[in-house]
Design a protein that fits this description.
By secondary structure, this protein is mostly helical. It has a domain of 38 residues. It is built from three helices and no strands.
Amino acid sequence: MTIYPDRLSPNQDDVYNALMAAHEGLSEDASHALNARLVLLMANQIGDPAILIELMQTAQSYADG
């Protein structure tokens, strides 16, 4: 599977700004809960377990440490 570096152009800043605005004023716990809900909603939208697992593995490979 190809992980595309940027499929949001030219609107990637709009998406980032909306994400930051959604987190504005939230506690750390509420922010983590929002992220979890977003991940689950996006996973449901993708709908293919094989793709989701590959995306998780790719994201994990980017982790610091």
